[in-house]
């Protein structure tokens, strides 16, 4: 069978058109913020000349089934690798050509950075060029250029041609639709995350919640497989919303939530209502298409009951709290789960199943959510509950040692199990990790702070009455400040600004002020306050899990690893793709069963299908061929999964920093 090939000059053509209409100076001004001021002007001059002369080398393009993500650019071979699913999506749904075009622009941005730094840059004294790579995600910055109306063109545009033997298929994209897609998917969040491995730089789509690069397969990208079961794009988005909510429920940790009868202690603790409203604001940004109508807004408004609080059973987390002085979190809010001490039966390994007993509580939660989804049908609630159930199913492979044990079952005996042996059928039990404060920082709090409070945002014009996300978030946060003058100051500042914004020329004055960095800084300082408040919340959760659980459980005789030792959510973990492949199989199977159930079929019970995946790998065979094939293709990953030093590097504590002088400046406002 002839291999398919993709032919495209789309990204090169778009850049060439820009160069033809811009002077060398204008071209430099446009691209310097994308690729860096460390590149001398001569680099951009040479690129500008080469584009006008038609001598810029286009990268090669290869369809790569083995790729773990959607796409990547190899700096050594100067080749863009594309996953076949990306092509298949564009074939199946013409609107998905926007995604293909976005990926091509993004990866071409990496190619341009490579050319600028190696082909067009002057040599240094030792014969080397400049830094190997631009800071953060230049691919997303380059793609985002074309979200501007000034750099986009209306009408249909040819993107690429797919050739399969004697047949060929062209992909086209509508200019305005692409402009909107680029704005949504290659914005600030995508530009902050760099997905690079060795010489390859991946595609970062900035989707969803939780801060994950597209080279990594997170909850949302895994659930894209539900299209194979028949779910349309709107339904998949609604399903992911339910999954996303379970992620963000982790922010409502007992160490962060202020009890209803406790005095306000901003920013050390926040009320459940305020935290829920912040998540609702984030949901408006992450799921705008679900909330475009009054009915949609009503169905997807995040409420305390919908979001819930952090409960280990909803994430297959080990509920053990190693602190001897741990208090009962139900005193703060009755929705928290009871504390679990070292002698609790839930922490024991079931001798027959060779699994920790607390895992069964997560399975029951999943089955309950699936039961509600089955009864509700494909409504907003039914889809949301299905997403909540899938969160547990996917986390079984991402947060347990199932993948490690599956490899050992096939003879890879050096792979670390992250647990001591136990008195059970298979010796090595299935375990999950304890979720600690550093995990909250890494997965939720800091990215949330950056989305709601972009402290280094560029100049934006003011429209009277309109509120930016950071201003809305501040109005929510300051409800929990013990001194009401803080919120009144913000409200008054915004009202005065609205009045001034009606004066002709006000935005011009603001632009000069912004450039000089002098007046009109009050609200900007409050933005920094909000940013730090959320980071403080995360910092407050760093507790005994970090200090009382040290070392490799295989050596210490423990069956209580930490979440960080097991979590495979990100592509830096050597077993990330294996865990992803198994999760995708499970999601597809349960998705097929539920879709058929909603259509009236009763041949397969979705609850039974989902429950069957929760076994020790020695007691199932569905994964054998998948694991065997993956292992044969990833010997380096297996070696890394057998080396404890690899994981020590992945667990370096992360401490975000902010401008703490903001506290003193703001306090002076009320003296």
Automatic annotation (TrEMBL):
Q: Which Pfam family is one of those matched by this entry? A: Het-C
What segment(s) does the record annotate as region Disordered?
A: 312-333
- Which InterPro entries would you find in this protein's record? Het-C, VWA7
Domain of life of the organism in this record?
Answer: Bacteria
Database matches in PANTHER family: NG37, VON WILLEBRAND FACTOR A DOMAIN-CONTAINING PROTEIN 7
Q: What's the protein name?
A: Heterokaryon incompatibility protein Het-C
